[in-house]
Amino acid sequence: MIDEIRALRYLLYNVLALAHHLDSRSRVYPQVAGATITLISDAVADTWGDWTQIVPINTIDFGYKVIGMVISGVDVASDYFFQLGYSLADGDEPTTAQIMGE
Description:
By secondary structure, the chain is mainly alpha-helical. It has one helix at residues 2-19; strands at residues 84-85, 99-101.
């Protein structure tokens, strides 16, 4: 019985840890409404285009994560697939290990 209670407490602790987010606040970046970036797709279907920097290195001086993007001004009716990654050095493209997801 004690082992079951310990297991239940352990499960409850893990569920509570997952429910607790360290995101104390959210910010929109960039904070200038007219600031945009342009993403250019590759001309060949099912081929990744070039990486485009959306947050320049050393711009934000605290830990952060990208939780969303607003896509507008799409000029071709098609399907789009975005991939996010990071780099530790300005100008370097992300390595496979630095790709965070699609």
